[in-house]
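Notes from the 1:1 (GR / supervisor)

We went over the backlog. Supervisor wanted to see one worked example end to end before approving the batch request, so GR pasted a single chain during the call. The sequence is below; no edits were made to it. Supervisor asked that the structure be written out right there so they could see what the output format looks like.
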Amino acid sequence: MAITIEELKEKIMEKALKGPKSQLYVKDFYACDPEAKPRAVKNAANDLVKEGKLVFWSSGSTTMYAAKERAKDEEKE
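Structure output shown during the call:
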C-alpha cells in the first residue's frame, strides 16, 4: 500500500536531514516510497521547496535538493 503525500514528505525530510550527503538528487528520494511513481516523489520534493523546508542546490550542470538547515551549515564552513 502506498503512503500518503504527507508521509512521503516526512520521509524525504528525514533523508535530507539525516543522510550522509547534504545535497541529494531527486532519485535519492525514490527509496522513501518504492511504490510511488517518480513524478509523485518529485512533486512532493518540489512541494517541500515551496514550503521552505528544502532548497534547490545547483552544481551548474544539475539541480539537487538540500535541507534548508544543512545548506546554510555548508555555506558557513
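Supervisor's comment: The CA atoms of residues 36 and 70 lie 26 Å apart.
Batch request approved.
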